[in-house]
Amino acid sequence: MTDWFLNPWSMAAGGALVASPIVIHLINRIRYKRVRWAAMEFLLKAQKRVRRKLILQQLLLLLMRIVAVLLIGLLVARFFGFGGAGDEARAGRHYVILDDTPSMADGRQSEAGVPSTALQDAKTVLLEQIVRNAGQATTPQTMVVYRLSELGEPFVVELNDVTQAETRLKTYLNQSNATLLRVPLIEGLKRIQADIDVGGGDSARIVHVLSDYRAVDWSESSESLREAIAQLTAAKVKVNLVDTAHPFRKKNDRRAPAAHDNIAVTEFTPLKLSVAQYETVEFTLRVKNFGAAEVIGLRFAIKVNGDENKGRSVEIERLPGFEERVVKVEIPFDRLATDDKPWDRFSLVTVNLETNEPGGLSSDNLRHAVVEVKNRLPILAIEGRPNLKDSKDGDGFYLRPVFTQVLGGYSWVNGTPTDLEKPDLDKYAFVLLLNVPTLGDAAAKSLEAYAKAGGGVGFFLGPDVRSADYNKLLYRDGEGLFPVPLAEQPSPELSEDEIQTRRFRISQKKLLVREPSRRSHPALAGLYTDERGEPVKDAEELERIFGFLSIRRYWPVQRIGNWREDRSVTELYSLPNERSPADYEEAVRKISDALPIDDAEFAKQKEILAGYRNDLRRIAVSSEPLYKLAAILDDLLADQRGAGNSNETLLREFWNTPRLAELKAQAVRLREAVKFGDPFYLAREYGRGRVTLITTTAGETWSDWPSASPGNATFSPIIKELGTYLSGAGTGENRALGQDIELKLEAARYRPTATRAFLTHVPTPGQIQSDPAPLVPLGDQPLTAEAGNFLLRFREAKNPGAYLFRLTQIRAATATGGEGGEAAEYRAFAANMDAGREGDLRRASRDDIAQIASGAQLVAADDTDWVKELRKKQSDLSDSIWLVVALGLLLLAEQYLSTKLSYNTADETTTAPSAASAFREARVGTPTAAEALKA
Predict the structure, then answer these.
(1) Which residues contact 804 (CB under 8 A, 6 or more apart)?
(2) What are the DSSP calls for 763-785, one per residue?
(3) CA 200/CA 148 separation, integer angstroms
(4) pLDDT of residue 506
(5) Pick among 3.90.180.10, 3.40.50.150, 3.40.50.10350, 3.40.50.410: CATH of 92-259+841-873
(6) Which residues 6+ apart lie within 8 Å of 402 measured at CB?
(7) What is the residue-wise DSSP string for 692-759?
(8) Which range among 395-404, 432-441, 487-496, 642-651 shows the weakest confidence by mean pLDDT?
């Protein structure tokens, strides 16, 4: 604009335009030559009377002509480089993020009664609003469309030929349906940011995000979204957030729009990934109602390899709004692999909702799991005293029949510590180390690698264990697989009198659940929950049997160190505290003295509190067992519900008083200290694997747990859950669609190629299918060499089902004469839609989005005002129709006034009167001589 203004020719043209009304006016003023005439003197006197009015009218006429020229200049200014927005002369580049994640399949009925979805509405907005309006710009316009599911394959189209652009884009969009992949919106913004940084150029850039703007998307990635949008707006990129979900978002409504109800299967996982033939495996089915309305009568069909006869059906009678139900389902497996059908080792289990769902998504009603079926599951058992394996003091004497006979499905393989150094540990369901004194460095590293890769390792301790070696090689300050550091020596050996005294304390539990929540841990859940995931009624009966146990010796674990803060380590069962109550006398007296017995506010509880204070003071100086003090503290705190205790209600009311919070915390800490001794049973998640530790022997050397009745009634159930927990390591392999499947293999042990296959089943509504699920070969995939390893990275898991891999393992000859060779190794991974997130259709509010995307514009699919700016026309006053109207009225007024002031008029009412009219006006105002004499 500066160049135009300083150009001499522009200045000359502008000066001529400005001077034109003045010149025209002056020409009109001098068009008649003035001649002085005596008769005109009389006229001049009359003219003076209207001189001021004449001057004002002439000035007004001049001003109107100047304003008319100014308005005409504004109308034509756009053709000479003037523009208020600054983008009209630049090329435009439009970046479109088309959300095609599963939630965009949320449907509705259009006004014409035609079914539509949020994705279909997004396509309509893109074609009919964005493309058509952007195509009206006079400068080149380019559009780049990114589908969230395919960010690496953008679609580029030029918009200057709107018809051709619509045709190309419509063809592209017709091939784009809602996928089953969940891709966060932030990934699309990052991709656009990279594109702008690389090739943004000097063009005007606009980003259009077509999505359903659900609350879960904007809450999980709020900070990342805020940062990404702030970077775009700081780079002067216009960001339009277009909500295409129904019901459409209203302009001035700050609340979240209503969301459609939806039922989703959010979990379907087996307790074990590898099972023995004919073994019954427990599956966890989790169903969630994401809507507000209660749903009644849901039926789910579970099929094994497409055969419902080998599965079962599950019914959920009522599912209230925003709640979920967990159902435990047991399914047996019988199909084994054969030489001609090696892939039959994998069975695909499918669950789907058969009840018609009113609205919502249908894609989240289906879920798959995959299980490998073997003839028997081998267990590698390493005993520290193999010479006693057939004796009751042997470390595996009682464990072996539990796994091979009571539970069945397992084969017991006796091994030695050197067997841990072999590269084929992954063929075992899990590994047991029973009173093993120590391990070599190679064995310890191999065992850690096995556990990290998804193996299970169980430890039972005993008299031969060298705690220093365990702490150094296996615990390694919390970095190793061993859960805790051991003391230097095992607990003191009890005398016969102490053993008998403790044995006859039937009311004292010899094992204590560390916390009530531990009962739901995967290593114990089967003991405390039924097939519906509800607590079993006889859980207390099981724990009462713990009073008949006798744990004579164990390895202590100090309650200090990093393991206490390590969330991967869970203490399941503890031993009771066997110290004297006198050791806690001072702490007990401090709490008993602090009880506000005489406070008038607690008059209702005075008698009860007085009784507890007396009991605490009495037992603190007595020789009674410490567990009785713990029981008194349990009753005082009223959080260990007792049957028929009428004082619990009053005590809960008492402890709910805010000013007693500190006193309650002190009482809880004291109870924990006096109630629990050293840990007895611990579990740890290590990498993808699992580790368990029991701090006493598995035989009779230190305990009568596996042999003495009735306490041994708890041995088999707990060992069963331990085995299920260890053999279920790696169940987290159930992955979300789109997530990479990665395997890291030792290069020296494998061939550099993997064979792939895909297994899935799509139920047909209303039909009973008994055909096996079809197997789809996916060909071979070369492995990538990386730092002495082979890496398998599979990125094509985009359809629900099971992805199968066959690897070729190289086995070297052993020093003992074992032959080498090659063996096939199989892996399987189930992949499903992320129903837990995609199934939640609740929408984000306008305020929430505005806080995160403060520089962006949020609009709805039915709003058309925002797309007008895409036309890239001048955005100054010349766009207004009122400017043209004002110019027209001004020209009419100018013509009227110009005609009225013309010197050629014959109208006597003009401002230039004729001589006759002036004479008459003069006579009217001047009396004659006769009139003067008469007067």
Answers:
(1) 343, 346, 370, 756, 757, 758, 759, 826, 827, 828
(2) PPTT----SPPPEEEEEEEEPEE
(3) 20
(4) 79
(5) 3.40.50.410
(6) 715, 716, 719, 720, 723
(7) EEESS-SSSSSB-TTTSTTGGGGHHHHHHHHHHHHHTTTGGG-EETTPPEEEEEEGGGEEEEEEEEEE
(8) 642-651
Contact 780, 756 (CB under 8 A): yes
Tokens of 316: 């959920």
The tokens of 1 are what?
């604009």
Topology match between the domains 263-375+734-838 and 377-578+679-732: no
Kindly state the average pLDDT of the residues 783-793: 90
Mean pLDDT highest for which of 204-218, 529-543, 766-780?
204-218
Kindly give the pairing relationship between strand 789-794 and strand 741-746. antiparallel
- How far, in Å, CA of 268 to CA of 370, rounded? 10
Domain ranges of the chain: 2-84+883-925, 92-259+841-873, 263-375+734-838, 377-578+679-732, 581-675
pLDDT digit string (tens) for 80-134? 544 444 455 678 899 999 999 999 999 887 666 788 999 999 999 999 999 999 9
Average pLDDT of the chain is 85
Q: Which two tokens stand for residue 665?
A: 């915390």
Work out the burial of residue 736: count CB atoms within 10 Å of its CB; fewer than 13 is exposed, 13-18 middle, 19 or more buried: middle
- Name the burial class of residue 383, with classes exposed (0-12), middle (13-18) and buried (19+) by CB atoms within 10 angstroms of its CB: buried
pLDDT of 625 above 50? yes
Instruction: Output phi, psi for 235, to 5 deg.
Output: -85, 15
Fold of 377-578+679-732: Rossmann fold (3.40.50)
- Whole-prediction pTM value? 0.76
CATH class, domain 263-375+734-838, is mainly beta
pLDDT of the residue at 16:
82
3-state secondary structure 333-351: CCCCCCCCCHHHHEEEEEE
> Residue 714 has what pLDDT?
92
Asked if the peptide bond before residue 247 counts as cis, ω within 30 degrees of 0, the response is yes
Judge residue 695's burial from the number of C-beta atoms within 10 Å of its C-beta, 0-12 exposed, 13-18 middle, 19 or more buried: buried
Calculate mean pLDDT across residues 152-175: 92
